[in-house]
Specification:
Blueprint (H helix, E strand, L loop, with lengths): L1 E5 L4 H12 L3 E6 L7 H10 L4 E4 L5 H10 L4 E4 L6 H4 L3 H22 L3 E7 L22 H19 L4 E7 L1 E3 L18 H9 L6 E4 L11 E2 L1 E3 H17 L2 E7 L5 E2 H12 L5 E4 L8 E2 L4 H7 L7 H14 L7
Parallel strand pairs: 1-2, 1-4, 2-3, 4-5, 5-6, 6-11, 7-10, 8-13, 9-14
Antiparallel strand pairs: 9-12
Helix pairs in contact: 1-2, 1-8, 3-5, 5-6, 7-9, 7-11, 9-11
Length: 337
């Protein structure tokens, strides 16, 4: 199968491309490199023993998309391309809606024009917003609390309506929880630009000496140890979830909506201790005030993914930390090494 992967040099995209190539698929990567680097393609090739096609470009570039669909026998699309900073999205909402929503619409229009009506969409658990109940099932009310979450929900709605308008469409909406970890080779992993927004890469940068200490935002939540609890999922498990979704779409029409998480909550202190074990060193931290908008607990009900996709996460928090530390210690400056 020939698969177009938008955002395929990014963190989750690159790990998924590796697994697609290893499964024997032909892969075309489209990425504008705004949050990634071209050398990721070389690393993917080294791991998989096979190179994906790579086109530097933007999903908003209609002429480029027309050319891609005309030139290549693309059968399905995995759509990762999008901006994702929760901190930045509130300051630049128009940028996020243009990139994430308008870009997606251009992509879907050109897919339709080319007769390509199969897509796996990279959505997010942020579409749920504050918990009405825990764990989050796929039936949880959808009330995102930031621009990023709104943009993901808008694209989900566009795809829902598209599938209603034409029963030939096959759509998988994958709602991620908290991706962490790295490929076991240590060749690809998370390489955030600037100060990391997420806990695991910040911990890793402290461990490698790039940052002095970790700030723990609040230890007075009503949780098992007072710190925030999240559902961390290994990026390789997340990637395998996309391959499972592709297999599902080969046999089913309509829209599948499914959580990709472990169903297990890990606190900040639990993650710190697991990372200390993986790196064999102490992680200096200080407890500071809570951040506005942070939720006490956030974790998936992972039952439906097992039922619908015959998929479930395989790796626990210890493996996530070991693989992250291997990546960070071998690449202290990320792909800038």
């Amino acid at each position: 199968m020939t698969i177009l992967v938008t955002g395929g040099t990014g963190y989750i995209g690159s790990h998924t491309v590796v697994q697609l190539l290893e499964a024997g698929h032909e892969v075309l990567v489209l990425d504008n490199l705004c949050n990634s680097k071209a050398q990721v393609i070389d690393r993917i090739t080294k791991i998989a023993g096979k190179a994906p096609g790579f086109i530097e470009g933007d999903v908003r570039d209609r002429a480029l998309l027309k050319q891609l669909f005309a030139k290549h026998p693309i059968e399905t699309v995995i759509h990762f391309a999008g901006l994702k900073s929760v901190a930045e999205c509130g300051q630049k909402p128009l940028l996020y809606y243009d990139n994430n929503v308008s870009g997606s619409i251009v992509l879907f229009e050109e897919m339709k024009n080319a007769g390509v009506k199969s897509i796996v969409f990279s959505s997010s658990a942020t579409v749920y917003g504050e918990p009405v109940f825990l764990p989050y099932t796929e039936a949880h009310p959808l009330k995102p609390i930031n621009v990023y979450g709104h943009s993901k929900l808008m694209v989900e709605q566009v795809l829902q309506d598209l599938a209603l308008s034409d029963r030939a469409w096959k759509v998988a909406l994958l709602r991620y929880f908290n991706p962490v970890g790295a490929h076991h080779s240590g060749l690809i992993g998370e390489d955030p630009a600037g100060i990391p927004n997420n806990l695991m890469p910040f911990v890793a940068q402290v461990a490698v000496g790039k940052r002095a200490k970790l700030s723990v935002f609040g230890d007075d939540y009503d949780t098992k140890d007072g710190t925030g609890v999240r559902d961390y999922i290994h990026v390789d498990d997340l990637a395998s979830g996309h391959l499972a979704a592709l297999q599902y779409l080969q046999k089913n029409q309509g829209v599948l909506t499914v959580n990709l998480g472990t169903g297990q909550g890990t606190s900040v202190f639990e993650l710190i201790h697991a990372f200390e074990k993986a790196a064999n060193k102490k992680i200096p931290y200080e407890v500071v005030a809570r951040r506005a908008g942070d939720l006490p607990e956030y974790y998936a009900d992972a039952v439906y993914s097992k039922t619908a996709l015959d998929w479930q996460a395989q790796h626990g928090i210890d493996r996530m930390c070991v693989d992250t530390w291997r990546w960070q210690s071998q690449n202290p400056n990320g792909f800038g090494q």
